[in-house]
Amino acid sequence: MLRPYITSKWHFSTITKWNFFTNFGIQMSKIIVYLESVISGERSGIFPSFLRIKLLLISYLTLGMVKIRRWLYSRGLLRSENLPCKVISVGNVVVGGSGKTPTVIAIAKLLKEDSDLKIAVVSRGYRSKTKGNAIVSDGNSVLLDSALAGDEPYLLAQNLSGIPVLIGKDRIKSISEAIGRWGIQVAILDDGFQYLKMVRDVNIVTIDSTSPFGFYHLLPRGYLREPLSALKNADLILLTRTDQCKNLNEVKRQLQEIASSVPIFESVHQPTCLMLAEKNQDLGLDYIKNKNVLAVCGIANHLSFIETLNALNPAKITPVSFPDHHEYTNDDIRNIGNKAIEINANMIVTTEKDAYKIREITACPVLILKIELKLICSSTDKFLELIKQRCEL
Fold first, then answer.
1. What is the CATH T-level fold of the domain 271-371, as seen in this structure?
2. Phi and psi, residue 366, nearest 5°
3. Tens digit of pLDDT for each residue in 65-98?
4. 3-state SS, residue 351
5. If one looks up domain 86-269+374-391 in CATH, what number appears?
6. How much of the chain is in helix, strand and coil states, percent to nearest 5?
7. 224-263 pLDDT, tens per residue?
8. Which of 33, 52, 214, 303 could make an S-S bridge to 223, C-beta 3.0–4.6 Å?
9. 344-379 burial string, b = 16+ CB within 10 Å, else e?
């Protein structure tokens, strides 16, 4: 999606010209770019204006359904189930990569380091090829690969030693299984802000500060999953990528107007190491300096990945971006390799989420840029304390 608060010499249109290597992909990328230019208001004229009106009318239906659903739960006409463990929900109100998964990882690690609580992480398992509920990790071993688990659950399992990760649309069932198997005391719910079937002890909403408000409209006119007024139901708001936001004070001002009683925390996506995928070897972040890099990613926020790489001072970055959760084809793999040869790249750098899918590329070394979410302004202790207070831990 377009990032109105980010400035970069790599604009969205520049990135997407490498997006796909098949005719179908090229056409789809053009459609996506066009729709985003319409939604953002960047494109003017009679037809874009007409299209915005049509999208707005559909978004009113979305608004009605969302409000009715929350009203039914608030009146008890639909029941939220209480579970015999504490539930920490991490979610968002804007479609796209707001940083939920790094936030879940950070919270799980903070709680584990701070206490001897038994913790599990539960995810829906978006685009998982496993039917029903499943265990991605038992805390000791990763039991499912990326295709079977889904991108984010696999990433969670890879990064959370000692913490089970489960997937399934029925997250109440997943948590109940975790309680039965491991006696967990705390469940961290990935993407749980709209999961009203379950009582949550604390609701944490992550907001990408580089694209915070989804163009102020619900889907499909904008990128909001719920009205911004739903932020009043949050217990904590965590702004992510604040180091890349050029208008942070204005973003915070608007959030305070919307949900004045909800505390706001700030965080950054901090690169931690550069791993050689083939050998799982840390080459150090300086390894990228003054090198010619082919940057490959299939994530929601392409620009953030490029900005993070740029801060490591490579000589040149050539971006190749795909839609979020992209399934790489053999043609994709072959053409990425050909592109690396064409530009004489020293390396291909990709995300943890994409690394498993493009590991077969042999044209040049494939490196994984690992990142961690870090709270800033020395607010980690306060952030954790507020979570523990809400959960009565």
1. Rossmann fold (3.40.50)
2. -100, 120
3. 999 999 999 999 999 999 999 999 999 999 988 8
4. strand
5. 3.40.50.300
6. 40, 20, 40
7. 999 999 999 999 999 999 999 999 999 999 999 999 999 9
8. 214
9. ebbbbbbbbbbbbbbeebebbbbbbbbbbbebeeeb
